[in-house]
Design brief:
By secondary structure, the chain is mainly alpha-helical. The protein has a domain of 144 residues.
């Protein structure tokens, strides 16, 4: 595979990466609270930027310096993602009213931080995948950059796709938006609990024999 074909593949895989279940659950839970389409897409883009910066920093260190992420640390970061999903879902249940985006001062730092945490949990796997194919550090870093850009584009499109039907349902049915926000909160909690179970028991974080984070 030529380097440029590899970069194209990185973009496609980055967009695919945006549709991972835990990513979708987190972005959907946050975006469901937005009334403004523009604010919702901005939220998804900020998540993607946070995720990409982390992948570039941590993944780049793995590629350039051979940094090794211990299995227990990698699984602990995934457990942090699970806790964050449960927290986001609980926030939707406890306060289901949708906001007016930036007009009500929704913290811009929230989606960025959520994206950073997701990036921390997945950087090692992305970087190791690159290393199995690319031996030249410069091209490997370029792959990470294009992969991250693909993730940003993917999550922005995902957020737009999610927001449009939610907004339409809210306009057509009274109180539909509150029910949708709560329902998506329950989905986020369920994904978080399932992830915590997998990390803790299937991958062995709670059992003293941790496997490599996936």
């Amino acid at each position: 595979m030529t380097p440029f074909a590899l970069l194209g593949l990185g973009f496609v895989l980055g967009m695919r990466h945006a549709t991972d279940v835990d990513h979708v659950a987190a972005v959907t839970a946050m975006a469901s609270r937005e009334r403004s389409f523009r604010a919702a897409v901005s939220l998804g883009t900020l998540w993607g930027i946070g995720h990409t910066l982390t992948v570039l920093v941590v993944g780049g260190a793995i590629v350039a310096f051979g940094l090794v992420i211990p299995a227990r640390l990698g699984l602990s970061l995934e457990l942090l993602v699970a806790a964050m999903l449960v927290t986001l879902g609980t926030m939707n249940l406890s306060s289901p009213d949708r906001t007016h985006g930036h007009a009500r001062g929704v913290p811009l730092s929230r989606p960025f931080i959520v994206g950073v945490v997701h990036g921390l949990a997945g950087s090692a796997a992305v970087a190791l995948l690159v290393l199995t194919t690319v031996r030249e550090p410069l091209w490997a870093f370029a792959y990470l950059l294009i992969f991250g850009f693909g993730t940003i584009v993917g999550v922005a499109l995902l957020t737009a796709t999610i927001t449009m039907p939610l907004a339409a349902a809210a306009r057509r049915f009274q109180n539909a938006d509150r029910h949708l926000v709560r329902a998506l909160g329950l989905v986020s909690i369920a994904v978080g609990v399932a992830l915590a179970y997998r990390v803790g028991f299937v991958d062995g974080l709670f059992l003293g024999q941790p496997l490599a984070a996936k």
